[in-house]
Amino acid sequence: MASNHKLVCARAARQQFRGAFQQAVRDYRLAKLSASTLKGLDAFLPDGLSFLPLSYLYDGEVARFAWEGAVTKENRDACDRQTNFRVMARTRPLQEQEVDSKLYESLSSEGGNHSIIVHDGRVHRDGRTIYTNHSRFCLDRVFPQDASNPQVFEEAAEPLLNFALQGGRSTLIFFGQTGTGKTYTARGVLDDVTKKVFLQTAEVEMCCYEMAGTRGGREAFFDLLADRAQVKCLTGEDGNVHVRGARRVKCQNAGELHQAIEAAFSWRSSECTERNEASSRSHCILELHLACEDENGLLRVVDLAGSERNFETQMHSKSMAERGGLINYSLLMLKECARVMHNQVKGAREKEIHVPFRSSRLTHLLRSSFTDKYHMTTVVATLSPSPTDVEHSLNTLQHVGMMRSARAWEMQDTEAMAAMEDAISEAKTAKGFDAVQGRGRALHSKLQDARKGQLDLHAFQMKTQVGGSIIKKYEGESAKLETFIDARWHRELKVKVQEDLWVLRDADMEATQVLSDWRKEQWTASKAHDLHRWDAQTLQSFLKSLDLPGEVRIPSTMTGSQLRRLGPRGLAALCGDVATAQVLQAALLGERQADQVATAAHRSQNARMTALGNHKVHAAVDEAVFEEAPF
User: Fold this and answer.
1) pTM attached to this predicted model
2) Could you tell me if 100 and 118 are in contact, meaning their C-beta atoms sit under 8 angstroms apart?
3) Pairing relationship of beta strands 376-383 and 85-91 according to DSSP bridges
4) Are 31 and 141 in a shared domain?
5) DSSP annotation of 157
């Protein structure tokens, strides 16, 4: 995992160069729109020919990436798959303060492909390259920003409710960072559950409890319907985990159930934090026990507390930090269980390893939701489109993706099983860079593929911790392994490269867009007022734009460099009168001053980029050293 300092540099880069990254997002969206338009030409053109216009209009990788999301749609059948474990995502709109800060949307959705695109803007460590990683995460359902709570209920909660009314056990989990609308979505879904459940049953028993920290620094469950009395989490004879001692409220109509839900949530722990005025400081679990003909059904709604990073907890008190630590620990154990199950299903481990469900009371309670193939579960990941939350969004999507890929019981057809066996065999026999574990299992360089024959060189065996100057290694246990060599500084490779962009594919698909055109535009804009670079046509256009009182006899072949060498006397000789010469001289002086300002801004921009590439965030954002550049 990248250090907190590097994450701060990444967020600072997105703020400093938001114009460039916003252009990258527009390029992808325009490419996707163009791909949808060109799709209709497939019936009239040979295979692959309709893609050619897209590849000429946009960056090659972006064009291919958008084409696969809008035309190929490999994940289009996700909703039709028969599975008891589904993963969905809902993106909230930009908040008012984010719009006022001129933040752009760093997330895009592909409804037809049921996937989320994360646009991760970065400054390379060389201090000169600025690029965007477009990462696609395929899920089972993606809700657009304008989706309402009833739509979320219809897709995510109603199948679980119907399954519970038939005597089954089902769980709905809301997962994501703090401030992304988990509790808002959960409350909206519960309102619709309250309206629909009594259409098929006469009585509902409800209990509600939260998992929070105690004064001794331990996890415990508290009954929200009994003044937060402490209850126990135990394993029953049926093998499922139950909360014992919680008060159950019987409800005969929607009004009683709604009143009980309101009473329970009023007791939930919440505090004002840097990210949220009423941030939930506990995991809330609400259970509806439904009476059925054969046996009682169960619908469990889990509203998890949001994860927080160090920079978001600077103003926390000691008790808040302690409770936040317990929240992050329980979420970490949930992610760890998902990672271990993912590695087991994908064959990354030759021996079956223990899944640490008992490491936390939360994972102990939710164990059957991930291991019982007769238990219906839906995970709704809530996301923030703000570029300051890109790391949160990537983390959320990576872990719900692991949860989704760990559902082994959906692999029933022979073709899928054969593909799985081939993937397992390939993972076991791969060596070097091919042995990288992850959802994509692909580590690649933009300009060289790290020749396998060079892996035995001693230089490739040198490894330092994350943040090393040349070579670095991530912990293999976190499904990320990287051995990095910069060929420009290692003569043993005997290769010459102009760029060096290593990408670790942790998503279902990625595309790296180097924003070289933006750098060229910035350089061209910084030289727009430089008289030395003006050709004859530019000079004549400049003269026509001036409101001169008299005639100017400047030859049509004269360039800006020649004009500047004339001096005041030579300039006056080309003008019809003194007034005209004074106006022209003042205009040229204004251009020189504008050139100095543009050059200083461009120099400041390059200095900030170099500082961010070297992870010197304070130097990059220090207003006393660098003035705000106009981009």
Assistant:
1) 0.79
2) no
3) parallel
4) yes
5) I
